[in-house]
Amino acid sequence: xxxxxxxxxxxxxxxxxxxxxxxxxxxxxxxxxxxxxxxxxxxxxxxxxxxxxxxxxxxxxxxxxxxxxxxxxxxxxxxxxxxxxxxxxxxxxxxxxxxxxxxxxxxxxxxxxxxxxxxxxxxxxxxxxxxxxxxxxxxxxxxxxxxxxxxxxxxxxxxxxxxxxxxxxxxxxxxxxxxxxxxxxxxxxxxxxxxxxxxxxxxxxxxxxxxxxxxxxxxxxxxxxxxxxxxxxxxxxxxxx
Length: 241
What we know:
Elements: H1 3-16, H2 24-31, H3 35-38, H4 46-52, H5 66-80, H6 86-95, H7 111-123, H8 129-148, E1 158-165, E2 168-174, H9 177-187, E3 193-200, H10 203-213, E4 224-225, H11 229-236
Antiparallel strand pairs: 1-2, 1-3, 2-4
Helix pairs in contact: 5-7, 7-8
C-alpha cells in the first residue's frame, strides 16, 4: 500500500463529502484501506495523515467533555453489567453511530485511571451507583496485582514487552505491563494480543538490545516490527534480563 495512494483516497473522499476530511473508519469502509495499512507504517496518528493530505486535524473528539465521556462509559457498563473492555467500546462504536469513537476514551487515561474517575462521578448519579462499586473493585484488584508483580526479582525496575496487532509486533518498555497493554488496546481499533514480558533492571538498555537485534525488520522508525515465529520464540525464551 503506497502512501500516495492513501493520500489520494483521503482527498477523493473529502471531495465527495464537500471538502470534509474523512475519518479513518470511513477510509476503511469506502476505500478498503485498513488501519494497519497506515498506522505505524506512514503515520502514528490519523491527524498526521490528514495533515499530509492538506487538511486540518479532525476536531471531532474535542466535542466531548470528560463528563460526557464518563456518562457514556458508565451507561455502557450498566448495559453490559460490568466495566467495558477496549473491545466492548469498539463494538459499541461500530453499532451505535451516536456513541463516541473508542479512541476518544483514551483521553480519560488507562482503564485504571478511568475507574478512578468513575467512582466520584457515579457516586453522584444514583442510576450509576453500581458502576462506582465495580470501579472500586477493579481498582482494588489490579492495584494489588501491580504491587505484587515486581516481587519475583528484587532488582526489577521495569519490563520490556512484546504485543501483537495483526501481523505486526510492538516492542517497548514499561513499569506496568498490564496497564500498558490496556492503554495500547484502547488506542487500536482491533484486537491486540499480549505476547510476553521480560523483567529487567535496565528496561532502556534491554529494549534497545531487542530493537537492534530486529533492526532489519523494523517498520520505519517505530516500535513496530515484522517478525518471524523464530524471532518471537527467541524473545519469549527470556524472562529476566
